[in-house]
Amino acid sequence: MKSEYTSSIALPDYPLWEKVAGRRIPLSFELELTARCNNNCRHCYINLPADDREAQSHELSLEEISGLADQAVRLGALWVLLTGGEPMLRPDFSDIYLELKGKGLLVSVFTNACLINKNVIRLFRQYPPRDLEVTVYGVTEETYEKISRTPGSYRAFRRGLDLLLDNQIKVRLKAMALRSNIDEFQAIARFCRSKTADFFRFDPLLHLRFDGDQEGNAHIREERLSPEETAHLERSDPERFSALKLECRRAETLPPIPADWRRIFSCGAGQDGFCISHEGRFQICSALRHPECVYDLRRGTLEEAWTQLLPRVLSMTSNDPEFVSHCRSCTLFDLCLWCPAHAYLETGRMDGWVEAFCQTAKARYSAGRS
Known about the structure:
Number of strands: 13
Order of helices and strands: EEEEHHEHEHEHHEHEHHHEEEHEHHH
Shape: globular
Mean pLDDT: 91
Helix content: 40-55%
Distance between the termini: 49 Å
Radius of gyration: 21 Å
Largest sheet: 9 strands, mixed
Strand order of the largest sheet: 9-8-7-6-5-2-10-11-12
């Protein structure tokens, strides 16, 4: 099938982005252990039922994971993030964790904490993760379970989090800013900062589902904040507002963008890492599922994906007039929710313009300058 995009490694230098080079060393990678989850969150872009046997049958085995990790280490990887779905749904989670640790990798874990038990605590106490990030959907049962749509999940989350904290396992807390928790968001921020004084982050970006499920996408759209609400939320948080002001100042000092600059990728995707999906696909970031940008690692090697696919993807350019006039000529890209992965999920094109993202960038810029 002929590509919609043009790829050429010989691109002009531009100070906003690094030049594509096939010999960069990957320092980190994400490993998606499963697409299944014990919760059924309204805003989630990946969650499949915990008992989905078909999904489970496609998951990488421990042996496959070990082999891919060996390849990643040979390429220069130092750090791996275990994510999902909920990674602790895997009955062999401890085996995977120890296998990766045994290869000298720094291992981080993203979890909802609902499945934390004494065995996991024993594992983490003996072999501490580099980072352990837990998402907080609400600080009341009503709000949390309105989002998770799983009875008993709030109590399970609090029990798991308390087990981690009581055993002095360092935890980082984060939150998604949603329509369902916006009235409780200040309480969520206070809760998170009281538990982990050195770290708290939140994200207002909700991208659409990887599987294109229309009912799930409708729920995600219902949970999205408006551009004005997003800007107001960031302005009300001193830490986030300080970062926003810096981004606005940077936008004002960027050099002029060349009129012929049509490169699609301007983010950090693929600059020093990659993602391996639960089905064994190489991706330059966890969200980018465009068929021209993935590589089946069950049929090839990481080195082939990193040295052959990656440079070709990162060098893609677009001749779409709307993309060039709206996105590529805009200096607010650091304030925008747009990226090729999210554009593809929204429009079916990696160079698709998304009006809501554009409005959010302008609202954030206005708030950051006030």
